[in-house]
Amino acid sequence: MAGRIKKQIVSGLLKEGDVLQAEGKLMEEFGVSRPTIREAFRILEAEHLITVARGARGGAIIHAPNPGLIANYALMVLQSEGTTVTEVYEARLAFEPSAVRFVVERSADLAPAILRKVLEDEREQFEDPVAFAACVARFHRILVELSGNKPLIHLWAALHEVIERHQALVVSMQRRGASLETARLAAASGLRSQEKLVELIEVGDTDQAEAHWRRHMLRATRVWVSGFENMKISDLFRDA
User: Fold this and answer.
1) What is the rounded CA–CA span in Å between residue 95 and residue 89?
2) Concatenated DSSP letters of 47-71
3) Alpha carbon distance 110, 20 (integer Å)
4) For residue range 10-28, what is the model confidence (pLDDT) as tens digits?
5) Going by C-beta distance under 8 Å and a sequence separation of 6 or more, which residues neighbour residue 62?
């Protein structure tokens, strides 16, 4: 029974906020016993697809599937498997340049203004390592979202918090060390590269935009991962 209700939610027959019929009606509709109904409710509630309100005025309220649960669960799995920072950056390098191609093909009219606003935020937060790193990660996230490709968007969501936490750590360490000026120059170079990407998207140059971003990602991966090659992402979440 739980499977049949899930199909109705996924197909749109049941929508966010809808209330399922009373147990007696459901027993009649599905031809099952009351314990079966309650077991189905337990399964659906555990999967965050319904909320069961108890009492005379209660009922099972439908919830649409929550994309955030994909990212949260994937992140737990990656931590439990001992995933390294290097692997996360390798995954990002594997799909993000391809996402740029989709951005040019599908969102070239909207993307430049949206991405330039994020670039402004990066420049404003340049002196704050944590805020700057968050803005850089947000540029990448919004870039993927503009691709309109749902699997890529969900994949990036699973990696976003890892990238943001790691980059904040790297920037903070660099700016406290002797490499302060080097770190500033690298950050400034990254901003120029992002601006170049926006320009290529704006003129609709799909091949050059993808190739430019692949080169950017290769350089960025070497910079961010250097010294952290064997760090496990679980180390980034010790205090979380």
Assistant:
1) 10
2) TTSEEEEPSTT-EEEE----HHHHH
3) 40
4) 999 999 999 998 888 888 8
5) 9, 14, 15, 16, 17, 18, 19, 20, 49, 50
* Two structure tokens written together for 213: 């971003």
The DSSP line for the chain is -HHHHHHHHHHTSS-TT-BPPPHHHHHHHHT--HHHHHHHHHHHHHTTSEEEEPSTT-EEEE----HHHHHHHHHHHHHHTT-BHHHHHHHHHHHHHHHHHHHHHHHTTTHHHHHHHHHHHHHHTTT-HHHHHHHHHHHHHHHHHHTT-HHHHHHHHHHHHHHHHHHHHHHHHHHHSTTHHHHHHHHHHHHHHHHHHHHHHHTT-HHHHHHHHHHHHHHHHHHHHTT-TT-BGGGGGTT-
Beta bridge partner(s), residue 62: 50
The pTM for the full model equals 0.80
Nearest Cα residue to 232 out of 91, 84, 89, 78: 84
| pLDDT reported for residue 183 | 67
CA distance 63 to 51: 8
Q: Which two tokens stand for residue 14?
A: 């049941």
